[in-house]
Amino acid sequence: MAEQAIKVENLVKHFGKDDNLVRVIEGADFQVDKGELVALIAPSGAGKTTLLMMIGCVEEPTSGTIWLGDEKVYDNKWLTKEQRKIRREKIGFIFQAHYLIPFLNVIENVTLVPQTNGVPAKEAEKFAMELLEYFDIADKAHNMSSELSGWQNQRVA
Fold this sequence. Notes:
Layout: E1 4-15, E2 22-33, H1 48-55, E3 63-68, E4 71-75, H2 83-90, H3 106-116, H4 121-134, H5 150-156
Helix pairs in contact: 3-4
């Protein structure tokens, strides 16, 4: 049996109230297993970003349940006050704009979050190089993001 990476049950998100109530998401239910590739496709304004922001513990749902791995992080309320820690340790976003730190080189950008989470520098660098090799960009590890193409910056991100 596959191990779940993300699971949501009866996830709801409303904005506003009374006459200004906007029902963005109504009862979303799905599971994404580790290693599974999923595409989220819907028309503009359908709530894709809102859904991702809730799963990423950035936007609070109106109701429902969210699991990240085997940890339930939301059950009609946040189950921890450490949403930032969850974002650092359990989930990552790649935005349309890459948001790399311009005064850090590629390897420094990639190792920043693990080191912030207490991973020793050498260990973070070793893992970062493995990732850069996997994404076929290890040869740019000491370049600045301004020296890379758009697709290369996305791979680094």
